[in-house]
Amino acid sequence: ESDGFYGTPVTDKSVRSRMNIPFKIAGGDEALTEKFLIQGFDKHSFVGFRTMTPFGFGEYLRASLYHGIDVNQAERLADFMRTFQKENK
């Protein structure tokens, strides 16, 4: 969907987690990653993306859907990610 703007280290869709979603922005672009984190917090109160993942700490962020995330909140995240991509591609 993102034409490579968002990337994941898990290329085999059959083994991807539905609860933890590791992703990087624009090939790991640090400036865009920081912008994503700041806008996500400022506009939507999203927190906790920059955590230790099985792929290390750094270019990959992680959306964790474990703790009380409902469908509406997941859709808000997806909408934010689509908007952010359009504005920063």
In short:
Helices cover 37% and strands 13% of the residues. By secondary structure, it is α+β, with helices and mostly antiparallel strands. Helix 1 packs across helix 2.
Specify Rg, calculated over alpha carbons: 12 Å
Low-confidence stretches: none
**What is the string of helix and strand elements?**
EEHEH
The percentage of residues in β strands lies in 5-15%
Distance between the termini: 13 Å
How many strands, which pairing sense, and closed or not: the largest β-sheet? 3 strands, antiparallel
Instruction: Count the beta strands.
Output: 3
Main structural class: alpha+beta
User: What form results from the Cα inertia axes?
Assistant: globular
- What's the total helix number? 2
Mean pLDDT: 89
